[in-house]
Amino acid sequence: MNMNRILKATLAVALLGSAAAHAQEPQVLNLYSARHYYTDEALYNDFTKQTGIVIKRLELKDEALLERLRNEGPRSPADVVLLVDAARLASAQEQGLFQPVKSKILSDRIPAQYTGQDGLWYAFSARSRAIVYNKDTVKPEEVQSYEDLAKPAMKGKVCTRSGSHPYMLSLLSGMIANIGEKKATEWAAGVVANMARAPKGGDTDQIKAVASGECGVALTNTYYWVRMVNSDKQEDKDVVSKVGFIWPNQKTSGAHMNVSGGAVASFAPNKQAAVQFLEYLASDSAQRYFANGNNEWPTVPGVKTDNPALDALGAFKADVTPARTLAKNTALSQRILDKVGYK
Ligand code: FE
Question: What distance in angstroms lies between residue 221's CA and the mean position of ligand 1's atoms?
Answer without folding.
Answer: 7
